[in-house]
Amino acid sequence: MDLHLTGKRALVTGASKGIGHATALLLAEEGCDLVLVSRDPATLATAADAVRTRRQVAVQTIAADLSRQDEVERVAAEAGPLDILVNNAGAIPPGNLLAVDNTTWRAAWDLKIFGFISLTRALYPVLKDRQGVVVNVIGSAGESPNPNYIAGSAGNAALMGFTKSLGKGAHKDGIRVVGINPGPVSTERNRMLLKARARQEFDDESRWQEFYKTMPFGRAATPEEIANAVAFLASSRSGYTTGTILTIDGAPG
To answer: What is the pLDDT of residues 106-134, one digit of tens each?
Structure first.
């Protein structure tokens, strides 16, 4: 299916690894020019090289810490015209109420919760000019709260509300706003979160395989499966979709 994304320009945060990197690769294959944003310049450069080898599209990189408002504003100033914003950056740590102190909690929310909100606000005029799309990659803990991931559960629920609220009004400016709630995904970060939530040690691959058998389809999702959904929701093929959130978690029992 042609997603009609050729010639579009997309900014992806957290683009150096995991879901963000898979999304960048797929959007490049679909013909999008890209602005890749991540904190570490070295991993960002490697990610950009990988995208360029996949397809000859324009790739701009911006190394930035999106937990800082001045950095958010710098990204918005350097990004240029955009059709698609994929908010994906964030690393909220596991832990229950007493395990996650205020400093840790606030720092995590500054990056993911306020990072999503602030960057969307900063880029809103640019997206309005081109009747763009915002795709927020959030996380299923917002709808399936876990006491051992309390900061993430509460933060993701807030981003779900942000996505739905903004989506109900942004269509007046020609902008669509959608969200994706991935469940467990085959990334190093999700392995860390699964270990924390399960409160188990996973010291070898056989233990992981045993744990995965308890999941729907006997595995976690792949980053590419989430990226496929990002690309479709960002495309004109999904042009009547806004203010809604797609859950991709394998439908656990």
So the answer is: 999 999 999 999 999 999 999 999 999 99
In this structure, are residues 65 and 110 in contact, taking their beta carbons and an 8 Å threshold? Answer: no
What is the spatial distance between Cα 73 and Cα 137, in angstroms, rounded to a whole number?
Answer: 21
Phi, psi at residue 191, to the nearest 5°? -60, -40
Q: Is residue 211 part of a domain?
A: no
How far lies 69's CA from each of 73, 115, 120, 181, 191, in Å? 6, 8, 12, 25, 30
Q: How many domains does the chain have?
A: 1
Residue 175 lies in a domain: yes
Cα–Cα distances in angstroms (integers) from residue 239 to residues 7, 27, 232, 234, in the given order = 17, 17, 10, 8
Count the Cβ atoms, other than its own, within 10 Å of residue 40: 13
Mean pLDDT in each 10-residue stretch from start to end of the chain (253 residues)? Answer: 96 96 97 97 96 94 98 98 98 95 98 98 98 98 94 98 98 98 85 61 64 83 97 98 97 81
The helix (H) or strand (E) run that includes residue 71 is helix 69-79
Query: Is 149 annotated in the active site?
Result: yes
Please give the residue range of the domain that contains residue 98.
9-185+222-248
In a domain, 128, yes or no: yes
CA within 13 Å, CB half, 173: 19
User: Residue 163's domain is classified under what CATH number?
Assistant: 3.40.50.720
